Amino acid sequence: MPGGPRIITLFSGGMDSAAALFQCLEKYGRESVLALSFRYPSKHNVHELGAARNILGYLGPEAPPHRIMDMTSCFGGSKSHLLRNGGEIPDGHYAADNMKLTVVPGRNLIFLSVAAGLAESLGAEKICIAAHHGDSHIYPDCREPFLRAADETIALSTEGRVRLAAPFAGMNKSEIAAQGKRLGVPFALTRSCYKSRQKPCGRCGACTERREALASIGLVE
Amino acid sequence: MPGGPRIITLFSGGMDSAAALFQCLEKYGRESVLALSFRYPSKHNVHELGAARNILGYLGPEAPPHRIMDMTSCFGGSKSHLLRNGGEIPDGHYAADNMKLTVVPGRNLIFLSVAAGLAESLGAEKICIAAHHGDSHIYPDCREPFLRAADETIALSTEGRVRLAAPFAGMNKSEIAAQGKRLGVPFALTRSCYKSRQKPCGRCGACTERREALASIGLVE
After folding, report:
1. Is there a contact between B105 and A70 if contact means CB atoms under 8 Å apart?
2. Residue A2, domain member (yes or no)
3. Does A99 contact B at CB distance below 8 Å?
4. What is the predicted ipTM?
5. Residue B192 belongs to what domain range?
6. Which of A59, A68, A149, B178 would be A63's cystine partner, CB 3.0–4.6 Å?
7. B146 contacts in A (CB within 8 Å)?
8. How many domains does chain B have?
């Protein structure tokens, strides 16, 4: 990457961000992409990061560079059941109100801000997030008005040098799965479950939505 | 602070953020204010944090709670002469183009995002930044359009629970100095110089602007 990346894509190791990564690779080529992961104190973070590494390992020589930024200290005062110091992860569908307990206040904005700062420093013109419409009922920082405002804020912060791409903002998870299938995403290597144990629980909102989305493209795990 | 803070004010230990802190204390009372400082790899950060602690020590029992968040890892890929891994801090007035070398890409957006996340977790309804018009020529993340967009983004991220206050956005540094004088800010305890040594250089942009602003209220250091 002699000239630095053109696009930095947020890459958690989940199925949505994996599909976004593969789409960036198709559009920009591996020389122009940087995959950015975050270490932060969610219960499933260690498994997400493992999945991220496994997916890049699967890509082998076609994998883009990968950077993991440690954001642990940024969430030292945060309250959420998704975090290790929070309560139990609720079971059930994302549409259920108790899934709101898994919102991490400010998470996407913090991640986008750090990615935008890194992009400006490296000369990248875009950052990419896989936020999608299916999450927008629960997570305010996945909604299109938020993503548009974040793009404008980042543009003003960088004098227009960095913009935000949210290619899945208007899509649901099944549409992302279909797109990922076309792009060859190894879904079996991705991680969705919000809980702390290695083996996915199959019952939390993340597992439930994953199962439905993968079933829609004929995949049963 | 049994019910948690109502406002979190960014407090670097510089004269502007000290004036903002004193204004918050006057308006909200110490029980409702949290002073938030950041550890990050700027050359002068250790001196800023020392100044922040000294100012709070000066306030004694009137000091609000203070929190220092470690953001070091967020700036691991950042390029700026303000940072310890960057080039020399230029001398001269802020209006000079070479002062642009001291822009830290994304800094205010990163700080505001983390503050907004903390505010939402603690139930605070506002965050406050001392960005002012005098810095806006050089720093895009001190300009009013940026601050308005950041406020909108934070509001959308928090479903309106947190808003951004930027009380000095339309003021210059001399006006802030006058306001700080009225509020009893101990300017001698604040730190402005961008350089790494303990003793202020008197020549960098930060020292130059500080001297002019303090002179305007009759203070000579």
Report:
1. no
2. no
3. no
4. 0.95
5. 7-216
6. A59
7. 153, 156-157
8. 1
